[in-house]
Design a protein that fits this description.
Chain lengths: 154, 710, 440
């Protein structure tokens, strides 16, 4: 088992010495390890990249895929941009909100599922696109919400 | 020099070197292009604020003046002559002000605010923004010395660029994206570092402000006095803001060869030591306050009884004039020639002199010694960083210099003679762009030593016993060696700004601060610079009573710095007059450079640490000393009680940051938390002097055992 | 023997699983074209690419061969080829299909393009959300490496992390350098000082994946396909209210009406066509009477819009144009990098005005204000993102002005809650996603 530090060094080795190109991938690893980018996650990433935690924080807050707050074990992300929106994405959002008993942007009380509305996922021809744990489900209809939620492990 | 090109701006044609920025080119034509984010000292322009929009002939879209470079035949129209540019600029300024709280009446920046000034000059008279502005909690202390008002912030990114590209501390950053972007530190931790305060001067609005200056003055109530900082051997040029005879603020006064307009937080925020609670204002005989007349009489009595047996402990923070006056009194008047300084002063590097700015242009900079440069001469660290950004190699050994052309040595923690030895060996003397610096501890050691040497031609021998020990300045008074000497002396006279800890000498005379003195300092480059009195001290200035005392021994000492300087100058500075020193002093060759006469000193052989051992460097931190100790808002900057270790030394001992370690030798040991510093050399450990408990040199290092840490 | 010459980007995918190295090779992949390219000198290859007059498929339509010729090949620094696979434009999903179905064609294109600029370092910057596509592409690179086909070229697939702006080439470079993806001022231009301040060529996925076809067919043959000003095929992404949304690879110059009404099956649910946003959500929209236009760079430019990402969002008559404008602007506000003032401040201001119009609290003067705020963004920003926010809104405002006026005159949305975008949530509505409390 390699340590987080060693894993980050391997990523750094893909890029020219002295560059910070490994930062996104290192933050992604830290997010997997810590569940979200906690203070400890930033400090560990900064040490491995030889930068400051503030630098890592600054970078992470620029990108939508980094979580600065604890998130659920599973994430359900619904595209609500124009093409999906025109095809009824809001109804899909509402179906998931009802199924999970939370609003978009929230996490279920048991910490199992986080529901988010997201910008265009690049599946516009297959509306509505829902990323379930980062894997795309396409042509999702409101009536699919129950099946999708049911398929997630508790 | 380089090719000149013709550029036409608003129908005025100017010639500038090719590649000159258009903002500067316009200035050469007498035309202002307003800017917010543009600041050449922060590196390449970023084109963020869009205030400098101009029309460039042949290009349909407006261009940012800050990112344009002069080429021959370029025709530029600014908002003065182009309706399109004017409309663009108005639109930009309207955007900049859309979320601004427009609270100038209660803003400390009011009256000296670029945003306010440019709004008056270029802005629309009203706003079309009728919706909710962005609001933030405000002001937020981003450290005890700096507050942040996010509503006033226009996100020009000057501060974050300073943090990432100048001081390279990477602590002040932008977070989030788009309209949600804010300036912040990590987890709201205080912005810590040697140079943080510079962001308050870079900020073109009232967003980042020094807390010490909050509600303390308005531009029409203040006077800026030009002087130099006296807290370290760099001698940064500063402007001291004075209101009603009180120092309210210290700002940089860009000397492009010395400091490039950056100053450290000690120099910027340390001034409140002037008003410390334990500041001495009246003389004392033992515990009892006495009048100045009594004090001078007492000094006369003590000195007269010790003729030829007076020893002086200097701090190296006296002005040239004070040192000369005191020296003349004691040497010419009382035949007592012996004085000591906290460190050896040497002219060994006089043949390798360069302005500090030459570091930036070097191909290789060799930092010799293990005392962190930033702790000793902070701005030198910025010059070295700037060199690295420009592509210079930063080395820790002369052996790696290779075929680099412009080589600069910086000695931090070894003697000037040792640095000179290396410089000789490398043949740096007289080579273009090459030179060497030694970073001393005292701010004016060289000036004091030269003045002391010049004030009298006689020489005396070391007295058999010390009749009177004269201790000049707080640094000398705090020196344990000086304290030990005082034990042997029959009587002691101490000049000090502040109360002494556990010591009441026979005579205690209140001293002044560098901010209260007129006179001169010689910095680590050998540059003679002018100090000005910015505030009236709460006691007579040293020259005043030294002159009076000198008259009692028939020694002629003038009570004015200018007159004393004239006398010193005849002997040391080639007759230069006080007035000729200049506002931004050039690097002169005074005293005559003697580098060629200095023999190459052998490199110092340091004892090498053996197995299980490290060489412990106990350094004097930047944030330490009498002035810093008396500034409550600087306490957060003082070093942690911890030992820094290299990754190698920590690795095989299985030590991680935060683990307790014991360092020591022959029974004396300290146990402190470890901090693993991957940039530290193997075999070296570092600890701040105040946590070293007298330890230093080769020591054993190990993980703390339970018994020791208990 | 390989089958018939393949002349389309997605060619071969009907009968083969081209994610597999062996199948791609079986249809002639990594074959004649690559050999031809490698036999050429860098200058000859750039000439060949210039002759093909392939225009970049990323949006701006800059000729690919010209771009390669601008690379400072004399520089002592390494030269980089960067593939922009950060497809994030609402309406666009063609790069994703290319990476998912013909990854080896993209890799082969990288090898040829890298050879042209004497580069041995290729970075493919793929948007972070495309996880499956990343795995396919990274796997394909591994296969090509094992097969010894990379010829000393290192191809690194680099994942983004969710930021539309990283599709802008200089922001992409910043992000690839591990920083916040904020665009750089130009000059210096990437061919002189790009990635790590070294000469860098940046091309879109479809552009690079087309390169093997050029080398297979020969530049002259390629230049004769499509229309003269825009040779080759393009993959058109069609989304929104059509019967058969999806990707359609067609020659450039195909009429828009044919694409919408024949290939994509016309308007769904028996509704009427109201509006087409032809290049992804960032370009000026067209009215139903404007769709008899050939789909190529110049023809679309002539009627005041852009080819853009060749991605058509088809909007039917159930949609409120104010809501369309508002949701679109919220996206660009959310994605604004925050670096330059007009975009950062202006997009938020536009959202506020549009919200007020939709709520019925605005006046006719606010319509002029909206237009004027847009004017103050156009042409004054550091990169195109701010303009992308303005172009569509400006077109809605001009072409559907009556609908905007109905909102302000009637004190609310004339669709009375029946618009297809009614209540649509945007990520920027979820404030607490940011740790710092900011009232956006």
């Amino acid at each position: 088992m390699s340590t987080f530090y060693e894993d980050v060094q391997k990523i750094r080795a893909r890029y020219p010495e002295g560059s910070r190109s490994a930062s996104l991938e290192a933050l992604r690893l830290a997010q997997v390890k810590h569940g979200y980018l906690s203070r400890e996650a930033f400090e560990e990433t900064a040490d491995a990249l030889d930068v400051t935690p503030a630098f890592c924080y600054s970078v992470a807050t620029f990108y939508d895929m980094f979580h600065l707050e604890p998130v659920g074990t599973h994430t359900i992300e619904i595209c609500t941009n124009l093409p999906c929106g025109l095809c009824g994405a809001q109804k899909v959002v509402e179906a998931f909100e009802e199924e999970l008993g939370i609003k978009a942007g929230e996490t279920t009380e048991d910490g199992n599922v986080t529901l988010r509305a997201v910008e265009c996922l690049g599946g516009c021809g297959y509306a509505t696109v829902v990323a379930v744990d980062h894997r795309y489900r396409q042509h999702v209809k409101p009536e699919d919400a129950a099946e999708i939620v049911g398929s997630l492990d508790a | 020099m380089s090719d000149l090109v013709k550029v036409t701006i608003d129908e005025r044609t100017v010639e500038v070197p090719k590649g000159t920025g258009i903002v500067e080119t316009a200035l050469a034509a007498g035309i202002e292009i307003p800017v917010f984010c543009y600041e050449p000292r922060l590196g390449d322009p970023v084109g963020a604020c869009r205030m400098c929009l101009v029309e460039l002939e042949g290009v349909p879209k407006l261009q940012t003046g800050c990112t344009l470079l002069a080429t021959d035949g370029m025709v530029v129209k600014t908002a003065r002559t182009s309706a399109k540019a004017a409309a663009g600029q108005n639109g930009t300024l309207e955007f900049i002000l859309v979320n601004h709280p427009l609270d100038c009446p209660v803003c400390d920046k009011g009256g000296e605010c670029p945003l306010q000034d440019l709004t008056f000059r270029y802005g629309p008279g009203n706003t079309r923004m009728q919706y909710e502005k962005q609001t933030f909690e405000k002001p937020i202390p981003i450290s005890p010395t700096i507050s942040l008002d996010r509503e006033r912030c226009i996100l020009c990114y000057r501060c974050t660029r300073f943090s990432s590209d100048v001081s390279e501390d990477n602590q002040l950053v932008a977070a989030n994206r788009g309209a949600a972007s804010v300036i912040t530190t990590f987890e709201d931790l205080p912005y810590t570092g040697a140079f943080t305060g510079n962001v308050t001067e870079l900020c073109p609005v009232g967003a980042l402000l020094p807390t010490q200056y909050r509600f303390e003055g308005r531009p029409w109530e203040i006077v800026d006095v030009p002087t130099v900082c006296g807290l370290c051997p760099v001698g940064c040029n500063v402007n001291v803001t004075v209101r009603e005879a009180k120092v309210k603020r210290v700002q940089s006064r860009n000397h492009f060869e010395v400091d490039e307009g950056w100053i450290c937080d000690k120099g910027r925020f340390g001034f409140t030591h002037l008003r410390a609670e334990d500041r001495l204002t009246a003389p004392r005989r033992h515990h009892h306050e006495i009048s100045w007349d009594e004090a001078v009489a007492e000094a006369e009595r003590l000195l007269a009884g010790a003729r030829g047996r007076i020893v002086t402990a200097l701090s190296g923070s006296e002005t040239v004039e004070q040192a000369y006056a005191l020296g003349k009194l004691l040497r010419a008047g009382l035949d007592s020639h012996q004085a000591m300084l906290p460190e050896e002063i040497s002219g060994a590097l006089d043949g390798f002199r360069l302005p500090l700015s030459a570091i930036r242009d070097a191909d290789a900079v060799v930092v010799l010694g293990d005392v962190p440069v930033v702790e000793r001469a902070p701005v030198v660290d910025l010059w070295i960083k700037s060199a690295r950004r420009k592509g210079a190699k930063i080395l820790d050994s002369v052996s790696a210099v290779g075929d680099a052309e412009r080589v600069v040595l910086v000695g931090s923690g070894l003697s000037a003679a040792a640095v000179a030895g290396h410089a000789e060996k490398l043949g740096l003397s007289g080579r273009e762009g090459c030179g060497a610096f030694h970073l001393p501890e005292a701010p004016n050691g060289r000036g004091v030593a030269d003045a002391w040497a010049a004030c009298c031609d006689d020489e005396g021998s070391e007295p058999e016993s010390i009749g009177v020990l004269v201790v000049s300045g707080d640094e000398a008074a705090a020196n344990p060696n000086v304290r030990a000497l005082a034990e042997q002396a029959e009587a002691t006279i101490v000049i000090s700004m502040f109360e002494l800890e556990n010591w009441s000498p026979d005579l205690l005379l209140p001293g002044t601060s560098y901010l209260e003195r007129d006179g001169t300092f010689v910095n680590l480059e050998g540059r003679l610079q002018r100090l000005r009195r910015t505030a009236t001290p709460p006691c007579p200035d040293e020259l005043e009573w030294i002159a009076e005392l000198a008259s009692r021994f028939d020694v002629d000492v003038a009570p004015y710095a200018a007159a004393v300087f004239a006398e010193v100058s005849e002997k040391v500075y080639g007759g230069l007059s006080f007035g000729e020193i200049g506002e931004r002093a050039p690097l002169r060759g005074y005293p005559e450079a003697t580098g060629a006469a200095v023999a190459a000193a052998p490199a110092e052989k340091e004892p090498q640490p053996g197995q299980g051992e490290v060489r412990l460097v106990a350094y004097k931190p930047l944030f330490s000393g009498a002035a810093v100790e008396r500034v409550p808002e600087l306490q957060f900057q003082r070093p942690q009680a911890e030992v820094e270790l290299s990754a190698e030394d920590a690795g095989w001992r299985n030590i991680e940051t935060g683990d307790m370690v014991t360092v020591g030798t022959n029974g004396a040991a300290i146990t402190l938390p470890a901090r693993v510093n991957r940039r530290l050399r193997k075999g070296v450990a570092r600890v701040a002097l105040e946590h070293a408990n007298g330890l230093g040199g080769v020591v054993e290092l190990s993980r703390a055992t339970e018994e020791v840490s208990a | 023997m390989p089958e018939a010459q393949i002349t389309t980007l997605l060619g071969g995918t009907e009968d083969h699983d081209l994610t597999k190295f062996s199948e791609y090779q079986a249809i002639g992949g990594y074959g004649k074209g690559l050999e031809r390219a490698r036999a050429m000198s860098s200058d000859e290859l750039i000439d060949e690419l210039q002759k093909a007059t392939l225009r970049g498929r990323g949006g701006a339509g800059f000729p690919m061969g010209r771009k390669a010729s601008l690379i400072d090949r004399k520089s002592a620094k390494p030269k980089y080829l960067v593939v922009n696979a950060d497809e994030s434009e609402p309406g666009a999903f063609k790069d994703r299909q290319v990476m998912a179905t013909v990854p080896h064609r993209l890799i082969e294109g990288c090898l040829i393009a890298a050879h042209a600029i004497e580069s041995t370092d290729v970075f493919i910057y793929i948007r972070g959300e495309y996880l499956t596509e990343y795995e396919i592409l990274a796997g394909a690179v591994e296969e090509a490496r094992k097969a010894g086909l990379l010829g000393g070229v290192e191809i690194t697939v680099h994942r983004g992390a969710g930021a539309y702006i990283c599709g802008e080439e200089t922001a992409l470079l910043e992000s690839l350098e591990g920083k916040r993806g904020q665009p750089r001022p130009r000059p210096p231009f990437p061919p002189i000082a790009g990635l790590y301040m070294a000469p860098t060529q940046i091309n879109n996925v479809c552009t690079i994946a087309t390169v093997p076809l050029i080398l297979d067919m020969g530049a002259e043959a390629f230049a004769k396909t499509g229309v003269p000003s825009s040779p080759g095929t393009a993959i058109f992404s069609v989304s929104g209210n059509v019967v058969k949304p999806g990707n359609y690879e067609l020659p450039l110059g195909t009429p828009m009406r044919e694409l919408i009404f024949e290939h994509a099956g016309g308007i769904a649910d028996g509704r009427e066509l109201k509006c087409v946003i032809p290049g992804g959500s960032s370009v000026p929209a067209l009215t139903p009477d404007q769709i008899d236009v050939p789909l190529d760079y110049d023809s679309l430019g002539a009627i005041g819009t852009f080819f853009g990402a060749a991605s058509l969002i088809v909007v039917d008559d159930r949609c409120c144009m104010v809501q369309l404008a508002l949701r679109s602007t919220k996206f660009y506000m959310h994605e604004s990098c925050g670096k330059c003032t007009p975009c950062r401040v202006g997009t938020r201001w536009m959202v506020q005005i549009l919200e007020s119009i939709e709520a019925g609290t605005a006046t006719r003067a606010d319509l002029d204000l909206l237009e004027n705020v847009g004017d103050n963004i156009l042409g004054k920003v550091l990169c195109a993102l701010g303009e992308f926010a303005v172009y569509p809104v400006d077109s809605y405002l001009r072409k559907w002005r009556k609908e905007f006026e109905a909102h302000v005159d009637g004190g609310g949305c004339p669709f009375h809650g029946e618009s297809s975008l009614e209540g649509i949530l945007a990520p920027s509505d979820m404030h607490h996603m940011h740790r710092l409390e900011v009232l956006v």
